[in-house]
Specification:
Number of strands: 16
CATH architecture of the largest domain: 3-Layer(aba) Sandwich
CATH class of the largest domain: Alpha Beta
Structural class: alpha/beta
Distance between the termini: 125 Å
Largest sheet: 7 strands, mixed
Helix content: 40-55%
Radius of gyration: 33 Å
Number of helices: 23
Strand content: 5-15%
Length: about 650
């Protein structure tokens, strides 16, 4: 009775139960925290690819830590459970710092990664030094804190220093240089599905040829394999849904009469593109394809031959196949053209045509190199076109009488027709995807701004139509370089310079994947920049960032450096159009107040009347294009007056 109202505690039992509850909740907490961190990373970077790469060191280091602790018999207790949350947080910081350094290098070309690594190393050193000394403590719980700290921190640092940069560089670099387009998760999965389909179905064809068709006569078995191979090639090409396929065959060529089929070579998908055209074809391949274990086995079964066999031996073997009604597919360039232009044709195809007494059917391939470029294995949006040219008969002397003459003249004919096909696709919308991919992994805001800006501009179609396809062009106030890159895609003969006083924008433009010697960017104040004589000056939404006197000075400078046949193109809001001007002011409010455009002073929109007065005083001819009803933006196409007078007199 003396113990009434008393409570009995078993300290050992309570401690055990408390640790048990902590362990159970800790596992749930870690899982939830990992998921939450991953979601936050994806949202922050705006790309699931960057979220995965940043998250993997955290996940892998945690698994390593658990594995090492289990191997050495280190168990979780109330002390190291608490300290593990601290280690987990440090791991997140380290991964983010490494990714930040990688992104700054990729986006701006700034080598800050080593600085971040140094900072991480100092943090690791001080943390391990501070907590690691507990390894000498007498109490087991304190020693477990030291072991957990050492194992956890070293694990995350090793993975962050090695795996994270390796995976990021795989996204954007190949063979020590930037890719033509970065790898995306969607593109990676898409490519794996296409390749897996091709290899699995090809393997089935090989097995079918070795087993299922063995009982058939040789000739019938070969025909069956050719039919299956054509089906595999065609289904593989059409399963690549990201690319539109266009076949132009005006003469309805069906290869009923054997011929030598020649085609330019841009991409690894050119082989299935050609094979899918008819089961009555034989492809001459290089040693790399012939030596491939799967492809080589398949090609040998259908009597495809390597070009290294030698022309004399090929003539003997191909004569038999021609007598059976087969046409011969040859890529006369011998290798894929990295710049997608037509390379020198070798004489082998034309020699075989003469020896086998065959016509030549030229087929132009366009767009396959944009779909899967050389050295790349991941597809891009594109339109792949096959255009059949007229059959060239062996008796047609317009292309020469000797192998040498026919090689030279047919090559020239092929280049001319290829340029016609190429020009038919020289429109801005065709290159939109290529332009957008230059700004992937450079921040979610910039990526979406690029999509919206280029969409509003209709991919700069109007500027492309106004600007000649050859000449020196200066984009004054170029921003991130959208217009210069699009103009370059549409004509490589344009020599383009972009100028902007925002150094960050110029650094972004200079570090795009499509940067080449014909597109250059410099940081400079356009009010005092010394322009060179040029064929075109573009002032696209620039003047209203300057004060009135600077506007007049800039226009005057551009006119003074404009070549005799040149153009000055100005697009800006006209404050005289009061009802429509509100839309222009609203769009500029968003662009200047949300960090897209820098301003030195208050915006001062031009007066169309005053601008026309200035141009009249400079003896310039002006054409005004009013292409919008929602804003006051007008386009002024300005040329020297003597050009108009000469055109009228010639007319």
């Amino acid at each position: 009775s003396g113990f009434e109202g008393s409570v009995v505690f078993d300290r050992e039992y309570l401690t055990f139960e408390l640790i048990k509850i902590l362990k159970k909740d800790f596992g749930l907490l870690v899982s939830f925290s990992l998921l939450l961190v991953f979601v936050i990373l994806v949202i922050s970077y705006g790309r699931i690819e960057l979220g995965i790469i940043t998250f993997l060191p955290i996940l892998i280091s945690w698994l390593w830590t658990l594995g090492i602790m289990g191997a050495f018999g280190i168990k979780f207790n109330i002390f190291n459970i608490i300290i593990s949350t601290f280690i987990f947080g440090l791991g997140i910081d380290y991964s983010i710092f490494i990714m930040r350094g990688l992104l700054q290098q990729y986006k701006y070309g700034r080598e800050n990664l080593s600085s971040y690594k140094t900072s991480i190393f100092l943090s690791v050193f001080t943390t391990i030094t501070g907590l690691g000394v507990l390894i000498f403590a007498q109490h087991p719980a304190l020693r477990s804190i030291a072991w957990l700290s050492i194992i956890g921190i070293l694990s995350v640092v090793i993975v962050a220093y090695t795996l994270e940069p390796l995976m990021f560089r795989w996204l954007v670099y190949i063979r020590g240089r930037k890719r033509t387009a970065p790898v995306t998760l969607y593109g990676f999965i898409y490519a794996q599905v296409c390749y897996a389909y091709f290899f699995v179905v090809s393997a089935l064809v090989v097995v079918t040829g070795i087993t299922g068709l063995r009982l058939l006569p040789t000739r019938l078995r070969k025909r069956g394999l050719h039919w299956l191979l054509t089906l595999v090639a065609k289904s593989t090409i059409y399963i690549m849904y990201m690319s539109k396929k266009v076949i132009i065959n005006p003469n309805k060529e069906n290869f009923s009469k054997p011929a030598i089929i020649i085609a330019n070579h841009q991409s690894l998908i050119d082989i299935p593109l050609m094979i899918m055209l008819s089961p009555k074809t034989i492809l001459l391949s290089n040693d790399w394809v012939w030596g491939n274990q799967l492809m080589g086995t398949l090609l040998r079964q259908v009597d495809f031959y390597p070009v290294s066999m030698g022309l004399d031996e090929l003539v003997k073997k191909l004569r038999i196949k021609v007598d059976e009604g087969y046409s011969i597919i040859i890529f006369p360039e011998g290798t894929r053209a990295e710049d997608l232009e037509i390379k020198r044709f070798h004489k082998g195809a034309f020699y075989l045509a003469e020896k086998l007494n065959l016509d030549i059917i030229p087929i132009i391939i366009h767009g396959s190199g944009h779909c899967v470029t050389k050295h790349e294995y991941y597809g891009n949006k594109s339109t792949v076109t096959l255009k059949f040219l007229d059959r060239i008969k062996l008796s047609d002397t317009d292309f020469g009488t000797t192998v040498r003459e026919r090689t030279k003249r047919i090559s020239a004919h092929f280049r001319k027709e290829f340029d016609v096909v190429k020009q038919s696709y020289q429109y801005p919308a065709y290159y939109r995807d290529r332009l957008l991919k230059n700004y992937l992994y450079k921040g979610p805001v910039l990526e979406w701004y690029t999509r919206i800006k280029t969409g509003i501009e209709d991919n700069y179609k109007m500027f492309h139509e106004l600007i000649p396809k050859e000449g020196k062009i200066v984009d004054v106030g170029c921003g991130y370089g959208y217009l210069p890159y699009m103009l370059n895609f549409l004509s490589e003969k344009r020599d383009i310079l972009g100028i902007d006083y925002d150094k960050d924008k110029i650094d972004v433009a200079n570090n795009c994947m499509s940067k080449n010697q014909n597109v250059n960017f410099v940081t400079g104040d356009i009010t005092d920049y010394e322009f060179e004589n040029s064929d075109v000056f573009v002032l696209n939404d620039v003047l209203h960032y300057l004060q009135k006197e600077d506007q007049d000075l800039l226009v005057t400078k551009c006119i003074g450096k404009l070549n005799a046949e040149g153009k000055l193109i100005i697009r800006d809001g006209d404050r005289d159009l009061q009802k429509r001007h509100l839309g222009t002011r609203l769009s500029e409010f968003y662009s200047t107040n949300f960090g897209f455009n820098m301003t030195k002073n208050d915006l001062e929109f031009v007066s169309g009347k005053e601008l026309l007065g200035l141009l009249e005083a400079k003896d310039m001819n002006v054409e005004i294009i009013d292409a919008t009803r929602l804003t006051s933006n007008l386009v002024y196409v300005i040329t020297h007056k003597h050009n108009l007078e000469e055109a009228q007199s010639n007319g």
